[in-house]
Design a protein that fits this description.
Helix content is 37%, strand content 17%. α2 packs antiparallel against α9 and α10 runs parallel beside α12. It has 12 helices and 15 strands. The protein is of the alpha/beta class. The chain folds into 2 domains: 120 residues, Aspartate Aminotransferase, domain 1 (Alpha-Beta Complex); 241 residues, Aspartate Aminotransferase, domain 2 (3-Layer(aba) Sandwich), CATH 3.40.640.
Length: 395
């Protein structure tokens, strides 16, 4: 018999009832150090007092009106994102996947408005993850996500990440743009080769294509800058974001230049809940904290400390850890033993991490963790490595 909740998740047998900072507490009030952060969503930990206050205040005044009317909080958040980024305009959504859908539509509509409606295809990269809608699973191209859902949505051409020759060969008369993640999170925390993103920008400029950076997982401080593109020396034309921008409240957004968004006129796109007052209160509160002087400096500092600690652990347990991957606080451990078993043992020790393909354990702590949390994390990771090393020695 099918359960009341559609069984599409392989859930761990634990339920959390409350959270505080980087910690979650289960039904028996056992504490867990959460270095999964709801898959990079709870950027400021759980129940941050400032975020709680912002939501409570907004909830007491107004929850929803719809985009038929002006929403002051939406205007405020859009102006702040524009001021802090390359973008000129913002469309608000409920999730990163919806923001990604908006990005695809903006790219196609741009060429339609430019008199070239045949240019609708996007070059994407093998191993990418852009969401779970029909269009975004087609953009990602993973067979396991496409299986059983009929013919893939047309318009996406996958090439190997880092292969500029393949990009140039894939580009044709129907190509509208290039879609890339600054770091591929779901496929095992893969970082593009140095200079690759810059070469994509140059190629797009030369061919009249739009460059889309999917910063749903890398954005809002995750890599130590407000957005990952800032470190590349170039900027995209379109940038969908999500996850961390709401600090745990459902929120996404699609940022674009005026030029890229020229085809998005009245009625060309919409959302019932996107940009609602509650989400805008959360998003503005997150930015209040992340944009505080010194906050992102602190993220880079603690990320460097964490990365050094993980490198030391890998050197101590080369039979367990094959490689430390990632940037900022989007890190991965490529293991020589089953990652799923490693994650289970971590959870048994009161530590939460997230899996990824390629036998990788992702570590995505809140951005405001402190050195004592890193020490606690390293103790759990070291003890788990030791347990597998001991079993290997006994075998």
């Amino acid at each position: 018999m099918i359960p009341p909740v559609l069984p599409t998740y392989a859930r761990a047998d634990v339920a959390f009832t409350r959270g505080e900072g980087p910690y979650l507490f289960d039904e028996k009030d056992r504490r867990y150090l959460d270095f999964g952060s709801g898959i990079a969503v709870s950027a400021l930990g759980h129940c941050h007092p400032y975020l709680v206050s912002a939501l409570q205040d907004q909830a007491a005044h107004l929850w929803h009106t719809s985009n038929l009317y002006r929403i002051p909080g939406q205007q405020k958040l859009a102006e702040r994102l524009v001021a802090q980024t390359f973008a000129d305009t913002v469309f608000f959504t409920n999730s990163g996947a919806e923001a990604m859908e908006c990005a695809i539509k903006i790219a196609r509509r741009y060429h339609h408005a430019s008199g070239a409606p045949e240019r609708f295809r996007l070059i994407t990269f093998q191993g990418a993850f852009h969401g779970r809608t029909l269009a975004t699973i087609a953009a990602g191209g993973s067979p396991k996500y496409l299986e059983g859902f009929g013919p893939p949505v047309e318009g996406f051409d996958q090439v190997p990440l880092g292969d500029m020759d393949a990009v140039m060969q894939a580009a044709g008369k129907q190509t509208a743009g290039i879609l890339v993640e600054p770091v591929q999170g779901e496929v095992g925390v893969r970082v593009p080769p140095p200079g690759f993103l810059r070469r994509l920008r140059e190629f797009c400029d030369a061919k009249g294509l739009l460059l889309i950076f999917d910063e749903v997982q890398t954005g809002v401080g995750r890599l130590g800058r407000l957005f990952a593109y800032e470190e590349t020396g170039i900027a995209p034309d379109i940038m969908p974001i999500g996850k961390g921008i709401g600090g745990g409240f459902p929120l996404g957004a699609c940022l674009a230049t005026e030029r890229a968004a020229k085809g998005m006129t009245t009625g060309s796109h919409g959302s019932t809940y996107g940009g609602n007052p509650l989400a805008m209160a959360a998003g503005n509160a997150v930015l209040d904290i992340v944009l505080e002087p010194g906050f992102l400096d602190g993220v880079r500092r603690i990320a460097g400390h964490f990365q050094q600690s993980l490198a030391g652990l890998a050197a101590e347990y080369p039979g367990i850890i094959e490689e430390v991957r990632g940037r900022g606080l989007l890190l991965g451990l490529k293991l020589r033993i089953p990652a799923a078993q490693f994650i289970t043992r971590l959870r048994e020790r009161g530590f939460l991490a997230v899996g990824a393909t390629d036998n990788v354990v992702r570590l995505l702590p809140p951005l405001n963790i402190e050195e004592n949390h890193i020490r606690e994390a390293m103790q759990a990771l070291a003890a788990t490595c030791a347990s597998f090393a001991t079993e290997g020695a006994e075998a």
